[in-house]
Amino acid sequence: MSRTVLARDPLDAIGDVADGATVMIGGFGPAGQPVDLVEALLEQGATGLVVVSNNAGNGEDPLARLIRDGRVARMVCSFPRQVDSWHFDAAYRSGAVELELVPQGNLAERIRAAGAGIGAFYTPTGYGTPLAEGKEHRRIDGVDHVLEYPIHADLALVRADRADGAGNLVYRKTARNFGPVMAAAARRTVAQVREVVPTGALDPEAVVTPGIYVDAVVEVAAPLPARTTEARA
Amino acid sequence: MSRTVLARDPLDAIGDVADGATVMIGGFGPAGQPVDLVEALLEQGATGLVVVSNNAGNGEDPLARLIRDGRVARMVCSFPRQVDSWHFDAAYRSGAVELELVPQGNLAERIRAAGAGIGAFYTPTGYGTPLAEGKEHRRIDGVDHVLEYPIHADLALVRADRADGAGNLVYRKTARNFGPVMAAAARRTVAQVREVVPTGALDPEAVVTPGIYVDAVVEVAAPLPARTTEARA
Amino acid sequence: MTHLHDARPAAATAPLSKTQIAARVAADIAPGSYVNLGIGLPTLVADHLAPGSGVTLHTENGMLGMGPAPDPDDVDPDLVNAGKIPVTELPGASYFHQADSFAMMRGGHIDVCVLGAFQVSATGDLANWSTGEPGAVPAVGGAMDLAVGARRTVVTMTLLTKDGSPKLVERCTLPLTGVGCVSRVYTDLAVLDVGPDGARVVETFGTTHDELETLLGLTLGRTS
Amino acid sequence: MTHLHDARPAAATAPLSKTQIAARVAADIAPGSYVNLGIGLPTLVADHLAPGSGVTLHTENGMLGMGPAPDPDDVDPDLVNAGKIPVTELPGASYFHQADSFAMMRGGHIDVCVLGAFQVSATGDLANWSTGEPGAVPAVGGAMDLAVGARRTVVTMTLLTKDGSPKLVERCTLPLTGVGCVSRVYTDLAVLDVGPDGARVVETFGTTHDELETLLGLTLGRTS
């Protein structure tokens, strides 16, 4: 059932990624970050990427190194600044990376809108703030709203706990975060999971991401540490 | 934890319902219909109701009898016409009930928007059809969209399989349908469940409707049949 | 897309039965597709999907991985399809609420949606929810979402009404379900592609291209 | 709302410590409330909620029923709060994805949201995400959603900056987080209500109404 592919390894799973592609990367800080898939993206070599992710890398994790290596032209995120986001900070200050700062709820809802076929929506979030400057707005039932558009992607990289052969995913605790909405918003979705179980082994009532949203799954029983520090010397 | 109330019986659960209230009723035909809560609404007596529900009653079920008894001023639904929707058909033809016919996906998304704080959204569904006449539209990325507004309610009546003491709900199979979005869209939500289990007995990963959306729960171990035919002696 | 009609030459020399139309639709559905089947004739398509085709059925009332009707003893009132008919659950199935289910449809994730129709226009407009009779109780269900949401929307219908009027028309006279949403029409007499460039004959059954043009009063293109 | 400050007369004669501010906020939270606590000072409020109060904590990264920090041995990297700090799960908890979590916040389902602030205006405008320094790396997170989404948004802060400038101001000079979204401000020197009619003193700590007006350069109303 389904056409979800079980990949041999993360590099096989991500496949061809074109220069200039828009890539969504799940996770909220380290929780739910598909570290091995982003490491594979580093290895794969695509450049000029637009990355949609809540944060912009921690320490020497693979997303931070994508930025360090000049592979990211633009970040769309809500909270790039972290105590250890030195690579993003430097790239932002030098102008090497462009930033679209999006309130986190708008980020989540715009990604959800892309997956759900919504053309645009009105939200009160951000009205009257610098982040809504230049955006259309209208008053609805006495409340000022801003018009926000969906965020689509070419590729979504997400991390879940388990997948079955149909590509259904279940997550673990707050590592669920952006995975389900990103999986639905991208033309192609790749999931890194702790374990692949036989089709039929997941409770259909508890499936969070139905397999229709998942193109490839790769089992990574022992993921890279979330804040990988690259060996130096 | 939480302030969800465990009610003694369905009438106690629905509480005071004002004349003219907007009431959402879950279910897709008989599946997931909160029959005992609607029966309680019949008994409670509120009139001039606006009912939001996918269908408009089957046979002599309590929703059909609400309509028969002139208690419903307006139906908002996608598919009122059923082989056995004689009470709605008669009320519609006589002008006793007003109908707002909404494409089912718009119905679900407008209800979802109410719960999610979305002021309005653009969707391609319905563009160029009689159901979009008089509505605002705009072309986004080459596709014509219609502007749709949220549907809020004073009360939502839903049916789930199990609840815990915190008001968390899980559903059963396709009886889930409108329950989760309606629970979030109403100022007050009442759930009829087959079984109430102790808080902590539901898997937090598998909760479908978090207790924050549920104001009262009533256990109905043996619900009324879905297409109740009233005794006519 | 696999065109299996070459394997069934009989079909080309006579009009197709409803079962044959359903089989013809099924033959065009790529293995591994996610498919939504409308109520009525489209439902028959499920019977013609090869077991190994890996096609997954979506039902808009909240399920992926829908299986066939249950044995009468195993009917579960909580497990029904969009026509409110009891169905079953296949391994790998999942349940979701109505907004998530329509998001799946409206977001373009369903590969093929098969619908019935009262009329389809040469440019792909669809009319399938209302006969426009005054006083009739209207009902639309998911028709408008299904029509415009799927990656590919196809229609199964007889080419003519019972009184012989064409259902494939220059312009729909009945209330529309969607504008320019239909790609292909499977009928008893022909398979036709419709779209911005008008209708084109893909295949005929017991009739000819010229006869079809006369019958429909339309100029029809040819697929090369 | 229960005003427990009558039970703590000492608080009225001296400025409050951060712990006392947190306790004062907690005293205003009705039993059974659903509450979201911002990063920093607001987080301390959790320590002052009575165990039997039935308050449920929401964290916008996808959880209701958040518990306190785990023992160091029980840290789970998949279970963190909005500040990415390890937390625990209480009985009755539930998990959901980011869009559902913000829908919960933005849809007005959270009773109280407690936030920190750089500035609050007398009419309830909030500035808490950017110091406006040129060249600084900006970051907003969920601040704007939290500010306007909750049924009631309150702020905890010291009333003055380290160099003695008021943080409660006629009009915010820093980039706004939300317009007219704050209802009440809890500070070391006073609790004040803010809104369309301007700021009103609810309670003072070690200062007087007149002294506050001088300190802030604002005319302050009185709650009757």
UniProtKB/TrEMBL annotation, chains A, B:
Recorded hits in Gene3D superfamilies, A to Z, give: Glutaconate Coenzyme A-transferase (3.40.1080.10)
Q: What keywords does the record list, in alphabetical order?
A: Transferase
**Molecular function in Gene Ontology:** CoA-transferase activity
**Pfam families registered for this protein in UniProt:** CoA_trans
UniProt lists the family membership as follows:
Belongs to the 3-oxoacid CoA-transferase subunit A family.
Instruction: Tell me what this protein is called.
Output: 3-oxoadipate CoA-transferase, alpha subunit
Q: Which organism is it from?
A: Promicromonospora thailandica
Automatic annotation (TrEMBL), chains C, D:
Which InterPro entries does this entry report, sorted A to Z? Answer: 3-oxoacid_CoA-transf_B, CoA_trans_fam_I, NagB/RpiA_transferase-like
Alphabetical list of Pfam families matching this protein: CoA_trans
Q: What keywords tag this UniProt record? A: Transferase
The answer to keyword Transferase applying to this record is yes
What Gene Ontology terms describe what this protein does at the molecular function level? CoA-transferase activity
Give the domain of life.
Bacteria
Q: Which family does it belong to?
A: Belongs to the 3-oxoacid CoA-transferase subunit B family.
The protein depicted here goes by the name 3-oxoadipate CoA-transferase, beta subunit
